[in-house]
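Reader question, answered in our methods column.
A reader sent in the components of a multi-part assembly and asked whether the whole thing could be modeled at once rather than chain by chain. We filled in our standard form and ran it. Here is what they sent:
COMPLEX SIZE: two components
ENTRIES:
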Amino acid sequence: MNPPPRRTPLIVLAEDDAAMRDLLAASLRRAGYQVFDVADGHALEARLFTDTDRGDDLPDLVISDVMMPGTTGLNALCSVRDRAWATPWVLITAFGGDGLHREAKDLGACVLDKPFALAELHRIVRLALSP
Amino acid sequence: VKLSWKINLALISLLVVSLGIQARMRLDRELALFEREMRQDQHVMGRSLRHAVEDEWQDSGPDAALAMVERLDAREEGVRIRYVEHGAAGARAPELESALPLLQPGGDLSRIEPDERDGPGWMYTYVHLDLPGAEAAAPMLEIRESLAAQRAYVRATSLRIAEWLGVTLAGTTVVVMLLMRWLVGRPVAALAAHARRVGAGDFGSRVGFDTGDELGQLARELDQMAGGLAAAQQALRIEQQAREEAIEQLRHADRLASVGRLAAGIAHELGTPLNVAMARAQMIEAWEVDDEADARVNASSIAEQCGRMVVIIRQLLDFARPRRLEVGTEDLRAIASDALELVAPLGRRRGVSLTLADGPPVFARVDRGQVQQVLLNLLSNAIAASPPGGTVTASVAGAERDGARIAVHDQGSVAAEHLPRVFEPFFTTKDVGEGTGLGLSVSHGIVREHGGSIEVRSPPGAGTTFEVHLPPGG
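And here is the structure of the entire assembly that came back:
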C-alpha cells in the first residue's frame, strides 16, 4: 500500500491585527504551508464550519488570536471540540493568564504569548503537524 | 454671687420680720411698763393730795382748799392739778362722764387721752374728794400729765432698736456673703471651670473637690459624665481610625487592581506591534527575505509598528502624567461646536450625522484644550458606536447654581456588564488596534481634575449617553 499522496498542510490563521496577520501569513507561506487567513472570529467560524460543511478541506492546524472581534479564539476552539474535531490549535494571546493556559491545555491547544519569536511559532507548527 | 445676694436678701427679709416683731413686742412691753409707773406715780400723788385738800377743806373752808389746789398746781412741774366737780362742766374728758359716777369714795381712776392736735396726749387721774357739804357736786381732783416724756422714751427706744437692727443686719449680710462665697461661690466657680474644660474637650481633668453636699454630688456626677464622654470619644476615635484604615486598604487594593489592569492593558497593546517588529527584524537579520525591496518592506513595517507603540506610550503618559489645568472662562458651546467640526470627517466616513442642540452660550471655568479632548473622545466613541446612518447628538446646558452639563448621545448600546468598566484604563470593546481603551479614562481624569463628574447611561434600546457635569464657577 502506498501512503496517501502528501499534500501541503493547510493552516487557517485568524488574527485581527493586519500587520500581525500579514507577518504570520507571509512567514508561514515562506515556510511552505498553505495559509487561509481571516481577520475576525466570525470569518474563522465561517471557514471552519460553513465552508467545511460545504466540502472544503478541514485545516490541518488553526492558529488564532484569543481576543478578536466577533468570536474569541477560545470560543471557536470550544465549538470545534464540541464537534469532536481534534484539529491542532495554537492560541496567540497578549496576556494569557494561568486560567487561559489551563483552559487551552484542557481543550488540547497550545498557547503562544506575545511577543514571541517566529522561530518559536515555526517550531510549534512543525510539532503540531508532525504525524 | 447673684445666688449669694438672693439668699442674703431672703435671710435679711426673714430677719427683719422676726426682729421687727420682737422689737415691737419689746417696745409695747416697755410702753406698758412706763404707763404703769406713771399711773402709779399719779395714784400715789393723788392719794396724798386728797388727804391734804380734804384736811384743808375741813380746817379752813372751801376757799382755802381751792387756793391750796392752785398752789399745788403751780408747784408741781410737768403735772397739772385741778379741782373739778363732776356735776359741773369743764371736766377734760367727756369719755369719763360714764365712768366717773362709778368712782367710789376714796377711789381714783386713771385714763390716757390723746391730744386734740396730734400732740403726745395726756394721762389723767381723777381722785374722789370726800368734802362735807359738797357731796352733791361730786368733787374730784384732776391730775394731768403730758405723755411727751413717754413719747420721747419710745422714740429713743425705737432708735436704739433700729440701730441694733441695722448693725445685726449688716453683720448678718457680711457673714452670709462670706459663707456663701466659701460654701457656694468657690465650688460653683470650680464646677464652672471644670465644665468649661470638659466642653473644650479635656475629659481627663477632675473637679478636684468633694464637699459632701449637693455641690459635691454635682461634682461627682460631672466627673462621671466626663469619664463617660472620654470613653465615648475614645470609642469614636478607634472606630474612625478603623474606618480610615479600611478605606485605605480598599484604596490600596483598588490601586493594585488598577496597576494589574494597566499592566495587562500595556501587555496587550504593546504585545502585537512588538511581536511584528521583532519578527520582521529577525527576518531581515536572517535574510529570510526575497530581495532588498522585500527587506525594505519589512523595515518600514518595523518603523510603522514602532510608531504604533510610540502612540500607545504617549497616550499612556498622557493618562498617567498629572496635567496642569490652564483654566479660563470659556464658552462650552463653542468648545463643543469646534470638537464637532473636528470629528465631522470621521462621522462622514462612517455615515453618522452629528448635531449640536441649539442654545445660548454656557460659560464655565475650564481648560479649553482639555475639555475639547474630552469632547473629542466622547464624540469619536459615539461615532464608532453608532450604526451606519445613525445620529450623534451633543448638547450643552448650564445653570449658574448647578454648574454646566455636556451630554453626548448616540444610538449604540453598551452592555450592562460593561457599563461599570467603561472608564477603566485599557477597557475597550472596539476591535483591537482601533482604540487603546484609554480615551474614556483620560476623559474621566480630566473631568475629575475640573472638580466635575462623568457618567454613562445606556438603557436598553434607548442609545447611550455620556454626561459630563462641571461644577459652578469652575
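What stands out: Helices of chain B lie at 2-60, 62-75, 148-199, 214-285, 292-320, 332-350, 368-385, 439-449. Chain B is about 60% helix and 15% strand.
Send us your own complexes using the same form.
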